[in-house]
Amino acid sequence: MKRTFLALSIPILLTYISKACENTTIWAIVEDSHKFDGEEVCVDGTVSNLELTSKMGNTYTTFGLNDENGRSISVYSPGTLSIKEGDRVKSNRYV
What we know:
By secondary structure, the chain is mainly beta. The chain has a single domain (3-94), classed as CATH 2.40.50.140. Helices cover 6% and strands 49% of the residues. Strands 1, 2, 3, 4, 5, 6 and 7 form a seven-stranded mixed beta sheet that branches. The model is unreliable at 9-19 (pLDDT under 50).
């Protein structure tokens, strides 16, 4: 499985909450990640490998965002997110 890391400083929103942005897929990001550098996109998937971490007092959250075909991107967000393994989420912000 090809795995792409993108540092997404994003708030994660439930799929029923959305904000205007370009909808894309995890597959599109994995296949052509350079196309999305600095672009605001909306992408949704299922949370896996959730880790809430603190380094020197700075809390952050990392997790995999997976599509239905097993493709995945890595997500980073400052702070603690109110999500859990298996949640279906939609993210929107710059990649």
